[in-house]
Structures are given as C-alpha cells and as structure tokens.
Amino acid sequence: MAYWRKMRGTTTSPPRVSLSEVLWSWIGAFLGIAAVAWIHARMLAQSDLVMIIGSFGASAVLIYGAIRSPLAQPRNLVGGHVISALIGVACFQILGASIWLVAAVAVATAIAVMHLTKTLHPPGGATALIAVIGSESIHGLGYLYALIPAGTGALIMLVVALLVNNIPHIRHYPEFWL
Description:
Elements: H1 2-5, H2 19-44, H3 55-65, H4 74-95, H5 99-116, H6 123-133, H7 136-141, H8 147-165
C-alpha cells in the first residue's frame, strides 16, 4: 500500500509564472531555435549535415523557460547532448540490427553516463535516441553527429541563452558553469 501512496505526490502545484517570465522564455526559445534552424537552412541545407534535431526543442524549454534548473546549466546542456550523441552513435554502430534493443541501451546508457559526469540533461536522452532511430543522413554522420548537430547546436542555443536570459534584471543565467 505504501508503494501506491507514493504516487499521490508530496507537494502542491507550483505557482504560475509572471507574464514577464513567459515573454522572456518565448523570446529566448524563438531566437535560440531560429538561430539553429537558420544556420541549417543557410549553410547546411545543400550538404548531408544537419543542424537542428528534435531534442533541441526540449532543451529550449529548460534553458529559456527553467533557467535556474540544474538540468538547464551550460555543463548539462552541452555535455548532455555531446555525451548522449556519442553513446547513441556507438550503440547504433555496435548493436545496430535490433532497433528496440539499441534504442533502449542507448538511452539508458546515456542517462547513466550523464549522471556519472554530472551532465544530466533530459533532452540528451532524445539525442541518443535520434542517433539510433534517425534518418540515413543522421546515421551517415557517424561520430560527427556529436559535433554537428549535437555540440554545435547546443553551443548556439547556449550563446542565445546567455544573451537573452540576462537582459531583464529579474533573470540571470547561468547558475553555474562547471
């Protein structure tokens, strides 16, 4: 019975954020995703490289909307994406035949390694998964996937987060670097 009682939760819902916070989160997310997508469209569209991946949408929620979260800090953002990308590519290349197994191993291993390296960033799990279930162009990148799009895209979004999140006097980012 105690097991089931744990699922009731222990606190109430957090308070609603201010309209100012909503606006700055929107501006940051818009500019961060726009920057990565623009670079993809202008510089990489004619190549086999990609710059924007789905997990960046989840990163945007953290680094523009939950800026004080430990999971949104620069070390976690960049480290989580790069480490998870490397793990996803390695799992795909080593275990490649059975997608259900490779997907599970890649995401679980990415979580474990992010924990061990203090780089836990939930979108990193998606970055590892994309390395496994992604298109042929993603698979064709091999370990370059960790650099472009995972590392470079995360760095672009980080620069935007540093610039935008520090404009209003009520916000500051980051909480810590290392």
